[in-house]
Amino acid sequence: xxxxxxxxxxxxxxxxxxxxxxxxxxxxxxxxxxxxxxxxxxxxxxxxxxxxxxxxxxxxxxxxxxxxxxxxxxxxxxxxxxxxxxxxxxxxxxxxxxxxxxxxxxxxxxxxxxxxxxxxxxxxxxxxxxxxxxxxxxxxxxxxxxxxxxxxxxxxxxxxxxxxxxxxxxxxxxxxxxxxxxxxxxxxxxxxxxxxxxxxxxxxxxxxxxxxxxxxxxxxxxxxxxxxxxxxxxxxxxxxxxxxxxxxxxxxxxxxxxxxx
Length: 261
Fold this sequence. Notes:
Order of helices and strands: HHHHHHHHHHH
Strand content: under 5%
């Protein structure tokens, strides 16, 4: 039994690796800049956010340098948003494999998260370079950055499982998902400081796990501060909830996936 389990795990890992490499190559195929788009894409957002900050005169209570402040928030947000939106396409695009190999459909969702993970680490290196340029040097606290990314990823995959499970029955959610993600972008303190949010709207940040991940990330890189237990508790609690809801939904809806696609 143990040998069979190890063999299944090895098969799933190898399959996820193959799918990730295939998707990664296809993403940058026939592009002049290739993976450099992973750096250029958030820079467009940074330029737009700087315009909005100047247009609306948004304050900067903490006094952090604007570019690394914006880039740090965007790096985690893009990890979250792309992972959530990639779950359903990764599932349907690889469902035919189930007719040939007995694997869990979860493999496809995890493989779909491979490119966002790669992109985040590219962004992280860019953030570190920007921080050094502005005089913020790495500290021992930076060892927790991969953990913050992991929390973001787990929440994203859990939410992606829910989206994929619903979309297999009603694809209306796929039509509305980009708009919801876009609204979430502006409801999360990425291009503005949480300190300027009115008190009656603070709940938007308090119950937003991605906002807590971004705040923990910024606390580490700008203040050399360890994440607070409250932020960790809310984030881990949100992850547990989405997985408790998303995983059973996903398993039920993908039971006959090979027959549908």
